[in-house]
Amino acid sequence: MIKDDTEVSKAFTVKNEKGLHTRPATEIVQCLRNYSSDVFFTYNGTKSDAKSVLGLLMLAAPFQAEVKVSAKGEDALAAVDAIIHLANAKFNVSY
Q: Which one of 10, 15, 21, 23 is the catalytic residue?
């Protein structure tokens, strides 16, 4: 079996007024359960595992922050696209 090491990176702007907090982080982790690729978020020089709620919270990304999402693996593009879609939907969180 050949391992696919496709790498994909894109950026999104945090549209949630309260930033990237527990509820959006939980939505992200739940979304990424469907993907086998390694996925990371980078903000303000800090890189974090996007499949970890605690890791995402440690980024402390506020409203309007630009966050880079990168993935490596066989479904990297699909994983990144799913995160971009979720970010554009304010991570399915309404206040």
A: 21
